[in-house]
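From the pipeline queue, job 12 of 40. The input is one protein chain; the requested action is below.

Action: predict structure.
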Amino acid sequence: MKAALLITARLKSTRLPMKVVKPILGRPMICHMLDRLKLAQRPEEIIICTSYLAQDDELEKIAAQASVRCFRGHPDDVLLRLTNAAEQFGVDTVVSCTADNPFVDPMYIDRLVDFHSGHGYDYSKTEGLPLGTFSYVLAYSAMVRACGMKASTDTEVWGGYFTDTERFSWGVMHTIDSDVRWPELRLTVDTPEDFELVTQIFAALYEPGRVFPLSAIVDLCRRRPDLVAINASVQQKNGRPIKLKREGPKSG
């Protein structure tokens, strides 16, 4: 079994343009994310999955500078892009996260991969961690099946294909560690307020050459309600509902 970490990344964002390459302490946000993800032990490699559009050329350059792989695929069909990347690089188990989540935790990546493989699921996710700190794990074979079922090329949000169709086995790894359990805490980056919070966290915790743990982030936010208030009013966008192909008439 080959596991790899696939990062969905584009530079087309509307609420916060170019967010994944906006600088924090002099480095693009996605580079700080890569520092963190490289600590995960279960994935054998990291692949930035972006589009083939010229506007995303900078992400391919960043991948080369960071010594990680890059795949360029469909601009809008994220599920297809991830599936094609897994096929090209011979990946059996996909760990999926997005570049607007700079605090995805490597320890919980490893735990989720073990949970996923231990149960033999098609799709696994985590509940209990702050928004923007968790990943998803998928079997490549299940991704191929999901791509064959879908009737849309807009799959920015694709989890429902695995959880809402009754065609896949899936499970939830619940977080019980009290030092990081805070599902209401928003640590994803979609707006200027989100980016300001992340910047303030780096200003408080960052030391060159060291990746501060998720427990330190949560502890800081618990001690500093003024930080949590920065993006408290931001509403998470809802993804478009999944669309399935119609099944043909059954014979017999």
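Job complete. The chain has one domain: 3-231.
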